[in-house]
Write a structure and sequence with these properties.
2 copies of one chain form a homodimer. In chain A, helix 1 runs parallel beside helix 3 and helix 2 packs parallel to helix 3. In chain A, 31% of the residues lie in helices and 24% in strands. Chain A has 2 domains: 139 residues, 60s Ribosomal Protein L30, Chain: A, CATH 3.30.1330.10; 160 residues, PurM-like C-terminal domain (Phosphoribosyl-aminoimidazole Synthetase, Chain A, domain 2, Alpha-Beta Complex). With 330 residues, the first copy, chain A, is of the alpha+beta class. In chain A, strands 8-10-7-11-9-12 form a 6-stranded mixed sheet, with helices on both faces. A 4-stranded mixed sheet of chain A has the order 3-6-4-5. Chains A and B meet through helix 1, strand 2, strand 3, strand 4 and strand 5 of A and helix 1, strand 2, strand 3, strand 4 and strand 5 of B. Strand 2 of chain A pairs antiparallel with strand 3 of chain B. Chains A, B: Pathway: Cofactor biosynthesis; thiamine diphosphate biosynthesis; thiamine diphosphate from thiamine phosphate: step 1/1. Chains A, B: InterPro entries: PurM-like_C_dom, PurM-like_C_sf, PurM-like_N, PurM-like_N_sf, ThiL-like. Chains A, B: GO terms for molecular function: ATP binding; magnesium ion binding; thiamine-phosphate kinase activity. Chains A, B: Its EC number is 2.7.4.16.
Chain lengths: 330, 330
């Protein structure tokens, strides 16, 4: 079993039966450290190396029913995804992820296997990104809630914000686009395949190394694609006071995504342009910069008009919205 | 009004009407920065100075109904208390608090004044501790939930863990003890006074500077009193593999606390020894150390017996439990 790599048996009983301190013992016993962890879980606070003399920090909250479903994703996958989402924010600043802290709300009648597998997922995704879980807090409540804070180190580089894009820059993206949204569409219709897209929805694979690499390539602005490419580029356009135009022919929509789109009656470009949660990294670069093959140039930065718009082939995308957590699709 | 220091009018409408981005704009517009804030809210992540090359980090989760009540505390007080609780963890490592991140779950029908006042409280408590709110995340959910991560800097000092207490050390405490518990007892019985104790429950005043100061005084182990003195000293006893004995005559129980105890039928020493949430700082020091008057010596560290116990006048305290979030009072 993926989630019990050492052949370790699942924890017996519920969260309530194990108790707060029993559960904390069980969870922390599964963690691994990195050289950056100067003091791990178990004290008032953790101590993490910050060799750059600056620390990059980001917090995200995920609720059951809203951000994940236990019938669609295993606890392990929820852990992988929750960690990935936050670690990608660190990478998108140009920093190397170092640590993760977890605030966890759990119902007392939840089987303890769930948080144990969740922790395995968090740990393994941290491993991929070079980070470690260093601390957290667990309280009892009705709705499973994960509050994750990721930390990172800039290693002497300047942080790349959303505010530095300049007219003439190219827009380039690396990582997956639309895969999670296609997987979500499949699950929503009660199917479980094609597996590659369902897996992409359950467990995104952000290109962590691309963030720091983009700084070396001269990125002028950068973000990860969490709400959808158009929505996240709109943040760059607004912060940089520019317009951005995407070219649809620049995207390489896989044949299988076309097939799924046809089956469910959705233009797959919709997923590519507005689907979030794959945590691709999108950045703007000076036009003369030679980018490695992993980066795909998909548009360009233009002089600002009255509003900082993001257009597709020069026009508004019909449904170019992002997600507003209080209002729903905008 | 305390919570609108600039005479600024309250935000109209509900959280849902304001929307996620409107609310974020409203909340971040109220924040102040410190020189340690290299990049504040609004990007993928914040950037905070960590001159020591290590960062101290701690996360706490607070739920409405479990950790605070809206009929007992204003949003402003909840913010003050939530920040205090986390910033005290940083101080208890011997570090200076630098930054705070906020994960926030809010019902859509909540009036937007609530999170706005909450943010004012968080900001003002950060001010007291020398820190600043640098980022966060807001999502919609049923139960108001605060997930707070505090960061701090050790300024070249060694972190003081719970594990360094040695037989012969003295146990000393600074800050308030039992005031929050007395205030809670008052509120629980439907009263609102004496005001000093109710205020202490609503808005603790951790002695932030005492943490770093204790390092200079040679503290061997340290923690903040969040679950109750005996419970938190038990963490030190366990981590340090020692026993700790407290002397009741060393505590200075205020006359007014005696009066309240008599009125509600509780030995006020119970509040002093087992009441949490005042976030006093307790530390162990070598016996030869001359401590400033703000520190009160209340016990001593003894050689370990079979179990790492905390005793009071050499005996078990009849109700020396702490709080287990899944099991209730232990």
């Amino acid at each position: 079993m993926l989630s019990f790599p050492g052949g370790r048996p699942p924890t017996p009983g519920t969260v309530g039966e194990l108790g707060e301190f029993g559960l904390i013992r069980e969870l922390t016993s599964r963690l691994t450290a990195t050289p950056a962890v100067k003091l791990g879980p178990g004290d008032d606070a953790a101590v993490v190396a910050a060799p750059d003399r600056r620390v990059v920090a980001s917090t995200d909250v995920l609720l059951e029913g809203r951000h994940f479903r236990r019938d669609w994703s295993t606890a392990y996958d929820v852990g992988r995804k929750a960690a990935a989402q936050n670690l990608a924010d660190i990478a998108a600043m140009g920093a190397a992820p170092t640590a993760l802290l977890l605030g966890l709300v759990l119902p007392a009648d939840l089987h303890a296997t769930w948080p144990v597998e969740l922790m395995d997922g968090l740990r393994d995704e941290c491993d991929v990104a070079g980070a470690a879980v260093v601390g957290g807090d667990i309280v009892r409540g009705e709705t499973i809630t994960l509050a994750i804070t990721a930390l990172g180190d800039l290693r002497g580089r300047e942080a790349v914000t959303r505010a530095g894009a300049r007219p003439g820059d190219v827009v380039a993206v690396t990582g997956w686009l639309g895969w999670s949204a296609a997987g979500y569409a499949i699950l929503q219709r009660g199917f479980r395949s094609p597996r590659a897209f369902v897996e992409a929805h359950r467990r995104p694979e952000p290109p962590y190394h691309a963030g720091p690499a983009a700084v070396a390539l001269g990125a002028t602005a950068m973000t990860d694609v969490s709400d959808g490419l158009i929505a996240d580029l709109r943040h760059i356009a607004t912060a940089s006071k520019v317009c951005i135009d995407l070219r649809t022919e620049a995207f390489d929509v896989p044949a299988q995504m076309h097939d799924i789109g046809q089956a469910v009656g959705v233009d797959p470009l919709q997923w590519v342009l507005t689907g979030g949660e794959d945590h691709a990294i999108v950045a703007t670069f000076p036009p003369d910069r030679k980018l490695p093959a992993r980066w795909r140039v998909v548009g360009e930065v233009r002089h600002p008009s009255a509003v900082s718009r993001v257009t597709v082939n020069g026009a508004s995308w019909q449904d170019g919205g992002g997600w507003d957590h209080f209002r729903g699709e905008s």
